[in-house]
Design goal:
Length: about 350
Amino acid sequence: MSVRSALAKLHNRDVRQRRRAIRHLFEMNDPEALSGFIKLLEDNDPWFREKAKEAVIRWAGSKDLDLFQMLAESEEKEQRLLAARVANRANRSGMEILSHLSEDEEGIVRLAAWESKMSFEPSLINIALDSQDKAVRKAAAHRMASRDEVPLELLKKVLNDESESVRSSGISLLYTQPEHLDSGHLDEDLLRFVDQSDYSTKSRVAGLFVKRALVSKEISEIVIEFTREQHPEFITHFSRQLRDSDWSLIEGMEASLTTIASDNLCVRVIRGDRSLAATRVRNSILENEEKNIDLRARIIEDLIGRPVVESTLSIISKLQHSDDELLSNAAINLMEEIS
């Protein structure tokens, strides 16, 4: 079936013929077929309307400025949204359409228009960060990640935004572009998250602070306090960041893990770690009869199947005779596996 014959069947009374024609046109993938889909944008059947939108997204180009204008002026939100997503293909002329759509009454249309504008002209990110629409500001923050270098003042603006979701985007940005974080210029901006944020955001800020704690005494004290946290989501992210760094170089961290740190965090940080610092923490907890029995047993269980240094084995050998059944069983199981 040729493109012309398929187009002729797009408005056939037989629905099956129409659907077959659409499938053929998409298989042939000829942009000239787009003209036949325009009327289908107003079809009563939602399946045909969706196929018409798909055709616009697939084939519309710079020569279709009139189509973009028609869609942008539609009373139908979905058609304006479609225009917002494709109008930048008409280059500068399309930007005029997008400028109008970025003031649309529908938030989803405004956001799509701004996304298209920023993809065409990245410098508009700066303007988008001043938008009254938090969704637009958040989109601008995401776009900043594609820049080779993000100005410090823009990062500060994002991190101090009134919207939690926008600020969260700024934190994510620092993980991909940590240059300003290393300078210490953002310490004050990040400190405000410590007591105000949800655990998900707080854990990511804590992760950023791990590296800073190696060079800043103030930050290291905050990181030490973070070890007290009991929230599972926080512990999962924070422990991963500690394990990915040389946590033993953080002033006070080794002592914290043996004293004030939550049991779950401690277990996660030293699990499988064969460093001297981890061994000292492990041995200290195993020898401390005031420590939680479950914690001591978990540490022993985590050693099963792993190399165990002599100093730790000596402690565990004695724990076989513990009055606590959970602890003695864990020690016996490990010693039997090793022998």
